[in-house]
TrEMBL record:
Stored Gene3D superfamilies: Ribosome hibernation promotion factor-like
Superkingdom: Bacteria
InterPro entries: RHF-like (IPR036567), RHF/RaiA (IPR003489)
Protein name, entry field: Putative sigma-54 modulation protein
One of the Pfam families matching this protein, by short name: Ribosomal_S30AE
Taxonomic lineage from the root: Bacteria, Pseudomonadati, Bacteroidota, Flavobacteriia, Flavobacteriales
Native species: Flavobacterium limicola
NCBIfam families: yfiA
Length: 100
């Protein structure tokens, strides 16, 4: 799966990009027709500690799924986003297989 990582208001290091790629590659276990993923990592300028935002958009044939999570670290936000996407993909797969 092709994963594009976009950093907003900061520069992203290779370790974080690798983590995102590795985590999102696991989504193919749940639904093998995922085409690509766009990940937007943002830092909000607030005094709140939970100022890291991860928006993950994945493209599957006929649909797009978008998840947005805000946490203390990007790793945690990406992890929570991926878990939400796993549930969405499992639901989609079940829905499609029930129509066949």
């Amino acid at each position: 799966m092709k994963v594009s990582v976009h950093a907003v208001n900061f520069t992203v290091d290779k370790k974080l990009v690798d983590f995102v790629q590795e985590r999102l590659d696991k989504l193919e276990k749940y639904y093998d027709k995922v085409v690509s993923a766009d990940v937007f990592l943002k830092v909000e300028k607030t005094s709140d500690k939970e100022n890291k935002i991860a928006e993950v958009k994945i493209n599957v044939p006929g649909d797009d799924f978008l998840v947005k999570k805000q946490c203390k670290t990007f790793e945690e936000a990406v992890e929570l986003s991926a878990e939400s996407l796993e549930r969405m993909l499992v639901k989609r797969k079940e829905k499609i297989s029930s129509h066949i």
